[in-house]
Design a protein that fits this description.
Blueprint: E1 5-8, E2 22-23, E3 33-39, E4 42-47, E5 50-54, E6 62-63, E7 73-79, E8 82-87, E9 92-95, E10 103-104, E11 114-120, E12 123-128, E13 131-135, E14 143-144, E15 153-159, E16 162-167, E17 170-174, E18 182-183, E19 192-198, E20 201-206, E21 211-214, E22 222-223, E23 233-239, E24 242-247, E25 252-255, E26 263-264, E27 274-280, E28 283-288, E29 293-297, E30 308-313, E31 318-323, H1 325-330, E32 331-337, E33 343-344, E34 350-352, E35 359-367, E36 372-379, E37 394-398, H2 406-413, E38 415-418, E39 425-430, E40 437-442, E41 448-454, E42 458-462, E43 469-477, E44 480-488
Parallel strand pairs: 31-37
Antiparallel strand pairs: 1-30, 2-29, 3-4, 4-5, 5-6, 7-8, 8-9, 9-10, 11-12, 12-13, 13-14, 15-16, 16-17, 17-18, 19-20, 20-21, 21-22, 23-24, 24-25, 25-26, 27-28, 28-29, 30-31, 32-33, 32-35, 34-37, 35-36, 38-39, 39-42, 40-41, 40-43, 43-44
């Protein structure tokens, strides 16, 4: 049988070594971004002239508008392989083939002005000018769930059994899946355009008074604007214990202490009016009002980055999960949730599934600094949503800092790198002269920034042009592959 190997690894964009945002707009003819979304390995951007998609982290974009009206998309949501788009006048559309075409899904949706969307399990919610609508069949039919609610509804957020809705006069809560709503407006009656939750604290992004937070379920609210650069918060991104806030004029701000204070992160941003922020792997993307999409490595911004990629072997019916080298370098503990009710606290476990379905596999790590973060990815389908494995498949988590096999372990032990940490150069020493050994230096994004070949016993690696930080050296020949970490200081 012919062996088929499918690689599900994200292409990483070439970013400057400087800690700043970089525009990623090649192929876009319109740079007014209303919303961003991630579906599998594809990044979507809605503009005032239609939807674009990128399969290479924004290196290039292509139009993805077949079947879509000209309305602006104001909210995205994902259920399985379906990506839903809520528009500002034509209702909800869905694509099940990664944006190749879109289909209207408006049966029962009596208000087509959609401000925001979210999904929880099989429940799909649309926040509209006429209130909140619920679909339990992938948008096939919609039902109004507005008792006690005061439309229009600008934002919606689901946390377990609790549904929060941001309205013109503040926030509302439903604890019975939208059958009834209760006002949470004591101390905060401004329009709520974005909602987030971290632990027991709820955040409300409002206009014109900025950020409010509540630690008692919304019974009372207090201003949380310390360091915030603008008084209108349009979007949130929650990444572990870190919260990013996008503002309309103040750019992107970050809190690492649950809203006690905020720090602006705007170096390189050409437009400080932010409509959307998303995370894809180890990158963060910001959609601006007029300058397009910008990207930045999370490792420049936060102390915890969780990420892995996957490959599939059709002969053995196995997946290999490759933990990102930055993740492995900083993790002190792991918690894996395999999506079938089983978990593991091993760093690099194996797990076998018995049912023929897809699974959302989540990896949570803790770091020595006390930070935690999580990354989840659906195992068992490609970026188009096609299922390509059979029942009884196994996943094996690979340690990026270890070699595999006896020969490779011997090769690993034959190599030394000194000094490390280094400043301008370091020396790679082998136990014997080499035969066309390949050496690649990669940054924390996985980008190859230097590639050499040596047949000598020693190689001096010039690092004088490197920015301070962590790098990884991949050494490969017929004896095996060795990965080492180098610190430039």
């Amino acid at each position: 049988m012919k062996k088929i190997t499918i690689l599900l690894a994200f292409a990483f964009i070439g970013l400057s070594a400087k800690a700043q945002w970089t525009p990623v707009n090649s192929g876009m003819t319109n740079h007014s971004i209303s919303q961003l979304a991630v579906n599998g390995s594809t990044l979507f951007a809605s503009t005032s002239m239609g939807i674009y998609k990128s399969n290479n982290n924004g290196i290039s974009w292509t139009s993805a508008n077949t079947g879509m009206p000209n309305n602006i998309v104001q909210g995205f949501a994902v259920i399985g392989t379906n990506l839903f788009a809520g528009t500002n006048g034509s209702g909800v559309y869905v694509t099940s083939n990664n944006g190749n075409n879109w289909t209207a899904m408006n049966n029962g949706l009596s208000n087509l002005d959609v401000w925001s969307m979210t999904a929880s399990g099989t429940n799909l919610y649309a926040a509209t000018s006429g209130g909140v609508f619920l679909s339990t069949n992938n948008g096939g039919t919609w039902s109004s769930i507005n008792t006690g609610l005061a439309p229009p509804v600008f934002s919606i957020y689901v946390d377990g059994m609790n549904i929060y809705a941001g309205c013109l006069n503040g926030m509302y809560l439903s604890i019975d899946n939208g059958n009834s709503w209760t006002s949470l407006n004591t101390g905060q009656t401004n329009p709520v355009f974005s909602i987030d939750k971290s632990g027991s604290k709820i955040f409300a992004g409002t206009t014109p008074f900025g950020m409010y937070s509540s630690t008692n379920g919304g019974s009372s609210w207090t201003l949380s604007n310390n360091g915030l650069t603008n008084d209108t918060v349009s979007t949130f991104l929650n990444s572990g214990s870190n919260i990013f806030a996008g503002t309309t004029g103040g750019g992107v701000c970050l809190t690492t202490n649950n809203g006690a204070n905020w720090t602006p992160l705007n170096t390189g941003l050409l437009d400080l009016w932010i409509h959307s922020i998303v995370q894809k792997g180890t990158l963060i993307f910001a959609g601006t009002d007029g300058a397009g999409v910008f990207s930045r490595p999370l490792s420049q911004l936060i102390n915890c980055v969780a990420y892995y990629t996957t490959t599939y072997d059709s002969i053995s019916n196995n997946f290999t999960l490759f933990v990102d080298s930055t993740t492995a370098a900083n993790a002190t503990s792991y918690h894996w949730d395999f999506g079938d009710g089983t978990t593991s606290n091993q760093a690099y476990p194996s797990h076998t599934y018995t049912s023929d379905t897809v699974y959302n596999v989540c990896m949570k790590i803790h770091t020595v600094s006390g930070d935690s973060c999580e990354y989840c990815h659906i195992i068992g389908k490609d970026y188009l949503g096609n299922i390509y494995r059979t029942a009884g498949f196994t996943i094996n988590v690979h340690n990026p800092n270890s070699s595999v096999g006896v020969n490779e372990n011997k090769f690993d032990n034959s190599i030394s790198i000194y000094p490390n940490p280094a400043t301008t150069e370091t020396t790679i020493t082998f136990s014997e002269a080499q035969k066309s050994t390949s050496i690649k230096v990669m940054n924390t994004l996985g980008e190859c920034i230097q590639q050499l070949t040596t047949s000598n016993k020693q190689l001096i690696l010039d690092m004088s042009g490197y920015a301070k930080g962590i790098y990884f050296v991949r050494i490969e020949n017929e004896k095996g592959i060795v990965n080492r970490k180098i610190i430039v200081q």
